[in-house]
Amino acid sequence: MKRFAAMSTRLRGYAMRMTVSGALAQPLTQFLASIALAIVLAIAVLQSTTDQTTIGGFVAFVTAMLLIISPLKHLIDINQPLQRGVTAAELIFGLIDEPAEPAGGGRALLRAQGKVEFQQVCFSYGQANAPTLRNLSFTVAPGEVCAFVGQSGSGKTTLINLLPRFFDPSAGQILIDDVPLTDYRLTDVRSQLAFVSQEVVLFNDSIAANVAYGQTIDRVRVQHALAAAHLTELIAELPDGMDTAIGGNGMRLSGGQRQRLAIARAIYKDAPILILDEATSALDAESERHVQAALEVLMRGRTTLVIAHRLATIERANRILVLEAGQIVEQGRHAELLQQNGRYAQLYHLQHQSQPVT
């Protein structure tokens, strides 16, 4: 948060300087042009007394000066867009120059059993003073539901981002089915993962295309996925059924319907490892009930990793890992952690005290 605040302050300073310089550009140009015109007039008057210039020459010179002022002002006006374009070009070329994603090893992975293991995993963002993850070790058995709990900045999201190899650990290793991730082909690793978050990304296309998400559309499988996600009634009400376009980012759907569509997408993918980023945190009670029912269908028989923001949603997890400063400080079932009266119990009671009474 301190780094974010410092960068925001710097950005605000740059924006203020850019605004001030842009606002001063035109008045300053007009002021300098006026001074130049006054100097020319003074010189012309002095020369006219000694017959060194003619009226026609004087008028032509002054007219040329007046005509050149407008193009100069336009040149100044394009300075800011030009600078923004240069900055954008630097970002684009910087992205192009980024190293390609690791190709991974040559080992194929058709379908994982679902065992996930972290062994002494450490990770830092750039030259950060404090590592985000510190010697993190745990194992999730096939079919187990494992939840990760902790305050913002504890390392939950970073931990999850290491699994599809968005980043690689700076130390330690991650294994799927007792084989290091780096030994598998990257495309095979990512094909084993399905992700459902509270921020659903949808496209201006049909419901079927959004469920298939780049795969070949199998209408029977799409219907099954929609039914499992409790979207059958919605499809029946739409004029074109599953072929109905949902608008940019699903603007024609409610929040709960968008979440269930994301769940249908995960069901369609049928990956053995599921990652949930609190898919029900921003929904009303009725929508949450439908989404929770769809999640229960999705989680059956799958290894599930849950990033938990509301602790009431993970009470039935097989295991809960409490993270603090990138380390596991507690782990166990919900009831066991409450009995320990440690960090998890503090977070749980704090959330329940802050909830309004209805």
UniProtKB/TrEMBL annotation:
Tagged with keyword Transcription regulation: no
Coiled-coil annotated residue ranges, if any: none
Pfam families: ABC_tran
Locations listed in the record: Cell membrane
Keyword tags: ATP-binding, Cell membrane, Membrane, Nucleotide-binding, Transmembrane, Transmembrane helix, Transport
Membrane-topology descriptor: Multi-pass membrane protein
Name of the protein in its database record: Lipid A export ATP-binding/permease protein MsbA
Native source species: Linnemannia gamsii
